[in-house]
Amino acid sequence: MINGLIYDAYERKSTEDNEDRQVASIESQHRELTETQSRFDLNVRKFIPESRSAHKIGRPIFNQLLADLEAGKINAILTWHPNRLARNPFDAGHLIYLIDEGKLLEIRTPSRVYKNTPEDKFMLNLEFGISKKDSDDKSLVVKRGLKNKLAIGWRPGVAPHGYLNDRGTESGLRRVLVDPERFEFIKKIFQLKYKGVRTTEILRIVNEDWGFRTRPKKRYTSKPLSITTLYSILSNPFYCGRYEYSGEWYEGKHEKAVEPEVFDQIQIILGTKGCKRKPHTHEFAYTGLIRCGECNGTVTAEEKVQIICSECKFKMTVTSKNKEKCNRCGILIEDMKSPKVLHYIYYHCTKRVNKNCTQKSLEVDDGEIQINEWLDSIEISDCFMDWAIRQINDESDNERDFREDKIRSLQKAHGESRQKLDNLLKLKISPLNTDGSLLSDEKFKAEKGLIEAEIKQLEQQLGEVDDRMVKSAQEIADKFDFAAHAKERFKTDDLSIKREIFSTLGSNFLLKGKKLGLQPHPHIKIVKNMKADAPIIGKAFEPSENGYTVAQLHALYSQNTTVLRGQESHLVWKIMSLPCGFTLPRMF
Question: SS3 of 255, please?
């Protein structure tokens, strides 16, 4: 048995940046504990510092402290605060258990002593609970900050070579800045690799010709690039604007060192030494919209990459099993001199409905040529669009008075129906009708039901008529705008815009004989027929090209028999309102 109290003085500081930033360092803890030892003449066996987080179990020095308590080598602990000992329930419970077992007689801090009494153990438990809650709160704050930082496009953590961490901005909003001394070198490294220069030769150029040196850090001095670091740079998707964090991929706001398309081709050239994990999931613009014209099966998209060997000119398809060397001459892809990389996207039937389906695949560029032909057939000039929308707005203004008269009429009828219901109720409860001679229960119930149904129908009509014509006018204006600008918008690389335009053209998209077929929407048919019958509506007849003034063109549109077929000008409204439920004139 130990005679008296024998202490170990435990000093801890977390190594994690998000914990204990304001807590005294190990040096200041040691100073205070030494003063406490001297003041109370404590028998301290040794001072044991540890730089380890207490959020999770597994601190080696702390575990040895517990083992010494279990073995009876010590029976007391001197520490700066209980949260130095435990920030998780497992370690906290172990300490309380040792107190209950009489193996830990005292936990002393500079301001308090905890012994085996109900009050002291309650307070010690409370301190451990507070420290646990404090850790959890800090964790939530950190996670929320990281989530916000990721959402706005800034990757947390140490910036890779060629970039710098922003130290001057508020925490949580810090950006990733370009390293002015090294960023241009990183860009040139990607350019050299894209041109087919061997990686070992790039390493020689970087270190010997350029004199490149890495950024010095606290624990590492500046040094030349190693071959491992060079491969790490070439295969890191951060340089093309993409990065992974906690299993999810994000688009960064930092300046790119290489374009994504070039980066992807470099990964193909690097083979197995390229990016191990797929930096992004490929998206295809038209999947889910098209079906096979032969078997009505689903049409899917597939990406293929081919390389033309720079030595034997053999064209090889790059697959997961074949991504290192040429199938014919055996030369490594990485050793090829400027190999030509071909990238294709094909749409084809999945053959799940009929495995013997004979339909061939359609290359995406050929498909988009066909879509462009459709867009060209409906493209109208801005001048005609402005005129048509003006007619629509004029008709909408003319309809407003009618709409307001109708609303007033419905409101009047609604008021009269409410009055009839009130009169019916007054008659039912009249003293003269106590015997039901004026209005029986059966007749009251029947008439009340009719009036209530009438009121409900009037309220429904009021809701439908209000703003219906205004909304219809806007919908039609949007369709004219689509016809005027869809072809230009389709030139984008944004797949979501391409998909939106394609789906707006029609429905029931089919792929048969390498041709795309579709059922055009009614408003697309109308614009196409108008343009075909009246070429002056088309793009080739803009005012700047034929000398017509805008006013003259508007007059031509108003008089053109193809548009109006001799009818009054208000028929334009009816023609363009077809998708909203109006009647289509015989001209179409």
Answer: coil
In the numeric block, which tokens belong to residue 289?
């919209």
478, amino acid identity = D
Question: How many Å apart are CA 550 and CA 556, to the nearest integer?
Answer: 10
Please give the structure tokens belonging to residue 416. 């009269």
For 23, 129, 177, 218, 413, the CA distances from 215, given in Å and listed in that order, are 31, 43, 14, 10, 83
Domain assignment present for 280: no
Residue position matching structure tokens 């301290």: 44
**C-alpha to C-alpha distance for 13 and 83, rounded to whole angstroms:** 10
Q: Which residues contact 24 (CB under 8 A, 6 or more apart)?
A: 32, 80
* Dist CA 196 CA 309 (whole Å): 12
Domain of residue 198: give its range.
163-273
User: Which residue, 370, 382, 555, 410, is CA-closest to 477?
Assistant: 382
CB 572 within 8 A of CB 391: yes
Tokens 């697309």 belong to 524
Average pLDDT, the chain: 81
Distance between CA atoms of residues 88 and 53, nearest Å: 10
Give the total number of structural domains in the chain: 4
Is 28 within a domain?
A: yes
Q: How far is CA 371 from CA 48, 350, 364, 492, 503, in A?
A: 74, 22, 10, 14, 11
Distance of CA 51 to the CA centre of its chain: 39
Q: Check whether residue 97 and residue 29 sit in a common domain.
A: yes
Same domain, 55 and 138: yes
- The torsion angles phi and psi of 545, rounded to 5 degrees, stand at -100, -25
Structural domain ending residue among the three candidates 100, 122, 147: 147
377 vs 526: CA distance, rounded Å: 11
CB 4, CB 44: distance < 8 Å: no
End-to-end CA distance of the chain: 108
- Regarding whether 122 and 37 lie in a shared domain, the answer is yes
Stretch (H or E) spanning 343: strand 340-349
Q: pLDDT tens, 535-580? A: 666 554 454 555 555 565 556 555 555 555 433 334 344 444 433 3
At residue 140, φ and ψ (nearest 5 deg) are -65, -40
How far is Cα of residue 135 from the mean position of the Cα atoms in its chain? 30
The yes-or-no verdict on residue 390 having pLDDT over 80 is no
Predicted pLDDT at 471: 63
Beta strands 242-245; 515-520: pairing state: unpaired
Contact present, 514 and 360 (Cβ < 8 Å):
yes
Q: Which residue type sits at 417?
A: S
Measure the CA–CA gap between 92 and 55, rounded to whole angstroms: 11
In 3D, which of 464, 468, 451, 469 has the Cα closest to residue 414? 451
Q: Distance (Å, rounded) from C-alpha 206 to C-alpha 198?
A: 12
**Total residues found in the chain within this entry:** 588
